[in-house]
Amino acid sequence: MPRPILATIHTESLRHNLGRARQAAPDARVWAIVKANAYGHGIERVFEGLRGADGFALLDLEEARRVRALGWRGPILLLEGVFELRDLELCSRLDLWHTVHCDEQIDMLATHKTNVPHRVFLKMNSGMNRLGFTPQRYRAAWTRLNALPQVDEISLMTHFSDADGARGTAGQMAVFAAVTRDLPGERTLSNSAATLRHALSATATGTPPDSDAASDWVRPGIAVYGSAPDFPEHSASDWALRPGMTLAAKIIATQDLSAGATVGYGSTFVAPQALRVGVVACGYADGYPRACSTGTPVLVNGVRTRMLGRVSMDMITVDLTPVTDAGVGAGFGSEVTLWGRAANGVVLAIDEVAHSAGTVGYELMCGLAPRVPVQVAD
Fold first, then answer.
1. For 164-213, what is each residue's pLDDT tens digit?
2. Are residues 21 and 150 in the same domain?
3. Which of 81, 124, 177, 261 would give a disulfide with 257, using CB separation of 3.0 to 4.6 Å?
4. In the structure, how many helices (H) and strands (E) does the chain have?
5. Residue 221, in any domain of the structure
6. Are residues 268 and 220 in the same domain?
7. Containing H/E element for 218?
8. Distance between CA 265 and CA 244 in Å, rounded?
9. List 35, 225, 288, 362, catalytic entry
10. How many CB atoms sit inside 10 A of residue 210's CB?
């Protein structure tokens, strides 16, 4: 039999999470963000769950080809735009919309020969200080683009640096609104955190959404895949999000430890009393973070327990004290949910595991190893 580890992509959860974004921004159209191979889930695997989106947003041309190959005829947006002149030819051929964030991209458009003008999204650097024109240069960039016959509609966009924290979005929204107030074109501002938290704020205060924050498009990424964008302040369940991915394995051996016995490399865990441990077919070569250690939550037969010791390349060990029926049989052992939804419906949020590793759910999703088999299910 194959090694007992499996990742499952939950189509219905993706569909549900996309619906949550729509509920949070009922007047906006929704981009489904599928960059980084759909946050490690696989573009082809998530397509059915996300095809209810109004458009797909991603980074590179090969991913755009894959979305078109699936039969999608709606909008596709390149979030970083093009990287060289010949990319514009493929944008024309695949009917791609693309971000413009620097003078060099405007220069490329100016020399591009096309019979069909391009839809572009002009990006403002409103405080993130990654991509985009500064507020002082934004209108000049808009004027240059607007004068080009190669450009059709110009949409306006920015990206929030602190939508998930106390600093919030108000400062950046004020800058964006002041510069763009009289410019035509659709707006796209909000990522997952801004979409969900702004809706929470409006609901809690009983006030309508701030017109400065209004978007024609929102760009939910991590929330679509079932992770809270502002964990630990809010959990995925607080936002009514469901896990888009489950990583599950099985117990392949058990050990009975006496008090004082140690577990794993470095003997970092010392048993305080006699206890039983399970050895699980999952390690850092599968994408489980090596930075996890004793206390990281896991589910065994849907019962919450903890990891013990260090993560090895191919195995981890877990405390079986709360799971008296766990063990190994002829078809190998009990189900271990590393993150996601157990067979009994209990959920272990990926954010909890990531928090134990000192990272975020994004990294765990994107880090799923190629050797892990993946299935798609409802």
1. 999 999 999 999 999 999 999 999 999 999 999 876 544 443 444 444 45
2. yes
3. 261
4. 11, 19
5. yes
6. no
7. strand 217-218
8. 32
9. 35
10. 15
Specify the number of domains making up the chain. Answer: 2
Active site residue 35: yes
> Are 274 and 318 in the same domain?
yes
Active-site residue, from 123, 250, 265, 362:
265
**Residue 173 sits in the same domain as residue 263:** no
Nearest by Cα to 56 from 184, 217, 245: 217
Judged on CB neighbours under 10 Å (0-12, 13-18, 19+), 44 is middle
Same domain, yes or no: 112 and 209: yes
Peptide bond before residue 117 is cis, with ω within 30 degrees of 0? no
Q: What is the pLDDT of residues 100-148, one digit of tens each?
A: 999 999 999 999 999 899 999 999 999 999 999 999 999 999 999 999 9
Q: Which domain holds residue 364?
A: 245-377
Give the integer Cα–Cα distance in Å for 95 and 86. Answer: 14
CB 59 within 8 A of CB 33: no
The alpha carbon torsion through 186, 189, 193, 198 (nearest 10 deg) reads: -70
Residue showing tokens 């190669």? 150
Distances (CA, A) of 101 to 58, 126, 250, 371: 15, 12, 47, 37
Is residue 218 located within the same domain as residue 305?
Answer: no
How big is the chain, counted in residues? 378
**Active site (annotated) includes residue 123:** no
* Strand 245-257 with 217-218, pairing: unpaired
